[in-house]
């Protein structure tokens, strides 16, 4: 029962009782206490115990109402804290929270160390959780979401998987963003850099790629080179290739793959001059230079080059050279697989 309604009902009962008593006995009754005479009508003495009961009952009810009120406030505060913990776990940014109620703290503390992965839409969520869950589901589905527009750009830390995936989604739909990442690659995570580089290598020419040579890797360079033979005007020149070779740490296989492409684009003289320079600067390019010498049927030059090196070096080419001297019809591809030239 509500306190106000209880007091009203009690006072009404006291009033009715006092009135009926006064009707039966309107006289006064004197009570002496510690030398003091208390002279009140009999009706007052009758309702006095009821008044004291009302007073102590009201105090009792107020005490437990306040106790329940403060406990309810703790529950409400913990409910809001739990809502916040769920939010940060949904966005994969778990944060430790403080709970007032042990009943909640005993299990909700796990959210401070966990990330929630929701596989479907959920009905009945509050607007805040519903909004962020909808955004996350869109990102998972491959859509790009403008986080600034949705006012959650500061929610995700730089390494957050949803932020990374959202940027990768944008790369698939926004060519200008690909260029932006290429220009400022250090501002983005490694997966985003690689995705942008892969898209750039599959679509752009060496004209545009040359200025980004320092952020290329061997794999992306080979992707672009594989397009040179098939597409016109890719812009591959010896000068451009020099920039990439100087910027990248290429191994033997990389140089052989490059030689296998450039022999179809450059003239033999230009190609040989290029790789003669490479083999002097980069030891890993020596096999590629030998490969070109044999491929162009320059046996004397190849033999001279082999003689300049130790006998345990270039064993595959030495074996081919011996066979070539006695059987001139042999071609390098008949005995040596281009893809395994560098294998020991």
Task: Explain this structure.
- With 344 residues, this protein is mainly alpha-helical.
- It has three domains: 3-86; 174-249, no CATH class; 263-344, no CATH class.
- It has 16 helices and two strands.
- It has helices spanning 3-24, 42-90, 102-108, 127-140, 161-173, 175-183, 190-203, 206-209, 218-228, 238-247, 252-262, 268-281, 286-295, 299-307, 315-326, 332-335; strands spanning 28-33, 36-41.
- It has a two-stranded antiparallel ribbon.
- The protein starts with a helix and ends in a 9-residue tail after the last helix.
Distinctive features:
344 residues; mainly alpha; 3 domains; 16 helices; 62% helix; 3% strand; rod-shaped
Brief description of this entry?
The chain is mostly helical.
The order of strands across the largest sheet is 1-2
Gyration radius, in Å: 44 Å
Describe the sheet with the most strands. Answer: 2 strands, antiparallel
Work out the number of β strands. 2
Number of helices: 16
- Share of helix, binned: 55-70%
On the 0 to 100 scale, the average pLDDT is: 87
Strand % is under 5%
Unreliable residue stretches: none
End-to-end distance, in Å?
92 Å
Number of domain units:
3
Any chance you could write out the topology, listing elements then pairs?
Blueprint: H1 3-24, E1 28-33, E2 36-41, H2 42-90, H3 102-108, H4 127-140, H5 161-173, H6 175-183, H7 190-203, H8 206-209, H9 218-228, H10 238-247, H11 252-262, H12 268-281, H13 286-295, H14 299-307, H15 315-326, H16 332-335
Antiparallel strand pairs: 1-2
Helix pairs in contact: 1-2, 2-4, 5-6, 5-7, 6-7, 7-9, 9-11, 11-13, 12-13, 14-15
């Amino acid at each position: 029962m509500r306190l106000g309604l209880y007091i009203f009902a009690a006072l009404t009962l006291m009033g009715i009782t006092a009135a009926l008593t006064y009707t039966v006995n309107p006289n006064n009754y004197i009570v002496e206490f510690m030398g003091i005479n208390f002279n009140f009508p009999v009706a007052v003495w009758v309702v006095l115990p009821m008044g004291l009961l009302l007073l102590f009952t009201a105090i009792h009810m107020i005490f437990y109402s306040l106790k329940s009120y403060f406990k309810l406030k703790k529950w409400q505060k913990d409910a809001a804290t739990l809502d916040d913990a769920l939010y940060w776990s949904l966005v994969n940014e778990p944060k430790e929270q403080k709970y007032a109620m042990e009943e909640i703290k005993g299990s909700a503390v796990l959210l401070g160390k966990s990330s929630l992965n929701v596989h479907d839409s959920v009905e009945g969520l509050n607007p805040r959780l519903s909004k962020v869950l909808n955004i996350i589901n869109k990102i998972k589905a491959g859509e790009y979401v403008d986080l600034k527009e949705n006012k959650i750009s500061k929610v995700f830390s730089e390494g957050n998987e949803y932020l990374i995936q959202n940027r990768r989604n944008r790369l698939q739909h926004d060519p200008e963003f690909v260029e932006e990442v290429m220009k400022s690659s250090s501002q983005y995570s490694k997966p985003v850099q690689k995705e942008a580089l892969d898209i750039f290598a599959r679509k752009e020419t060496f004209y545009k790629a040359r200025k980004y040579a320092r952020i290329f890797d061997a794999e992306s360079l080979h992707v672009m080179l594989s397009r040179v033979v098939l597409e016109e005007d890719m812009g591959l020149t010896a000068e451009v290739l020099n920039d990439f070779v100087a910027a990248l740490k290429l191994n033997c296989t990389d140089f052989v793959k490059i030689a296998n492409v450039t022999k179809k684009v450059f003239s033999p003289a230009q190609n040989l001059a290029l790789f003669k320079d490479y083999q002097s600067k980069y030891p890993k390019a020596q096999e590629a230079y030998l490969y070109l010498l044999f491929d162009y049927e320059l046996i004397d030059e190849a033999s001279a080059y082999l003689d300049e090196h130790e006998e345990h070096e270039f064993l595959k080419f030495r074996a081919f050279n011996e066979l070539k001297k006695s059987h001139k019809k042999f071609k390098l591809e008949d005995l040596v697989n281009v893809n395994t030239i560098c294998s020991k």
